[in-house]
Amino acid sequence: MFSYADLKGEQISAIGCGTSHTLVGTSTGQLFAFGSNSDHQCGLDEGSIVATPTEVELDERIVFKQLCGGSCHSVGLDSELYQFTNSDMIGCVKKTLT
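Structure (tokenized):
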């Protein structure tokens, strides 16, 4: 079961949730995910259920301004838009906003 102690000491910059999963972005550019991962909506390769906040490995640190999700996907926004879904990689859809 999830406990806030799992993120103790982290400054939260954004939090978002989908139907059955949650994303937490930190002020240092880390991204944590937990909950249902059946469609890789947590941005993780592991298992269909992520029981505790697990860091999503990113190519670079990103301080997300907003995070949100649906039933089978998640979206993060900084100056670019990132989508997490069955493509396994957070940067699978990355679009620069103008």
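Residues 31 and 56 are 6 Å apart (CA to CA). The chain is about 0% helix and 45% strand.
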